[in-house]
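Me: I hope this is not a bother. Any chance you could explain this protein sequence and its structure tokens? It all follows right here:
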Amino acid sequence: MLARTPIEDILFDKETIISWLASKDPNEKYNYFDSKECAFANFLIVHGVEPNKFYNSQHNNGRRDCIPPGVWVEIVNADGPDCTYGKALNRAKELLK
């Protein structure tokens, strides 16, 4: 059996991000402000990483920060309450050209 790919190896991989977002229902909504219901948290879960453990490992001055790393903020943080996987996919395609 093959070992899981460490999340660090795929976290910012363009093809992995876009193909995962494309696999989701484009009209399905997620909650950016909930660290367990955010699109990034769902990406972590699908890839075998528990979101709270990920965020706890990202301590910054002893403070837990649930803001997704790097380009993920721009991909999953929509203006207003309209956070859908389809719109996140469009943002990812634009940002990861």
Q: What stands out?
A: The first helix runs from residue 7 to 10. Residues 29-95 form one domain. The chain is about 45% helix and 0% strand. The radius of gyration is 13 Å.
